[in-house]
Amino acid sequence: MSVEVRIPTVLRPKTGGQGVVSAEGSTVREVLAAVEAAHPGFGPMVLEASGALKRFVNIFLDDEDVRYRQGLDTPVPDGSTLVILPAVAGG
Amino acid sequence: MAARPPAPGHTPLVPLPAFSPGPGISLYAKLEWHNPTGSVKDRPARWMLDAAEREGLVEPGDALVEPTSGNTGIALACLARLRGYRMTVVVPDNAGEERKALLRAFGAEVVESPGERGANGAVEVASDIAAAGRHTMLFQYANPANPLSHYEGTGPEILEQAGRVDAFVAGLGTGGTLMGVGRALREADPATRVVAAAPPAGESVLGLRSLEDGFLPPIFDPAAIDARILVSTADAVRATRRLLAEEGLFVGLSSGAVLHAALRWAERLGEGTLVLLFADAGWKYLSSGAWEGTVEEAAARLNGRPW
User: Fold this and answer.
1) For chain A, percent helix, then strand, then coil, each to nearest 5?
2) Are residues B85 and B182 in the same domain?
3) Element holding B273 (H helix, E strand)
4) Can you give the pLDDT at residue B203?
5) Which among B118, B213, B216 has CB closest to A55?
6) Domain check: are B171 and B254 in the same one?
7) pLDDT value, residue B206
8) Interface touch B209/A10, C-beta < 8 Å
9) Which residues of B are catalytic?
10) Is B173 found in the same domain as B24?
């Protein structure tokens, strides 16, 4: 299950400057673990020590916030796109 | 309370038959540019200033400051001048020229914040000005009168105009609209779903030093919505153009984003009534070229600029 993961500018120092990385995994959690395996140091930026998604991090699977699906257990279909974005103000 | 400008609210709810994906789906749009200064923000601006006056926090002659990408500032500036306040508005420097010109026309002093820091940057600069002690910040991101304006105004209007509502879709900025309307609709029918259309803020926050610099508006409770759909600038432009071509509605870009998110939600709903909130009209976005050239060209021009 290969998916495309879009990395926000603020996290690119952890991915060697890359804005897009591919990773394997059948759930959001597995995909994040695969990115961490390839780019050590990435994981702690988005996940709490408890393994939960950090409050200021939003992850969209094919444009839908995974918090409103099954969170980190949301299944990730082959060929989908994960977008990681920091929470910022609008309005 | 001063009766000028006219009170916000009682905006029309119109059907969008051209966009119904199937016979069982009805889409309606609440046209918020029918408010006195042309956007949904007339509602929270009026509620916030009225509440601050009632509580004795401000009085005519005082100076106000507010961070805003435009609409809240325009609404507050209009009220402020009529009631005798001085108004300073902090906008990201990449906000469209129309907005800055409108703010000045309405009598506001415009202070610019670094555009690459997005709305977060405007919040920081306005907070610094307020901390200096000569300005009061009503602060739409944390002011309970913001969602209250929608709980007491927008929500009941929608219930009266639409009757049954299966899903409500609005843009996510401060969260005020989603929180206030959502609460009013759910009290009437707990099965109503609340869907947020989110702009692609990612590339406009280059100046964010770490994720911990992020900002969640204090009035926004993530548990009070049912979905958040990320809408790309290109998808927002495409839907904005379709609204003009197919329904004759000249909407701002956030309304295009709301339509895009609503159609996505309608796919899984199968049947039901969706109410969409269209926050403003297209005038303030003309200089962005949103209606010129291809969708991709327009999206490239708009990237990183606040909607």
Assistant:
1) 30, 30, 40
2) no
3) strand B272-278
4) 47
5) B216
6) yes
7) 42
8) yes
9) 41, 254
10) yes
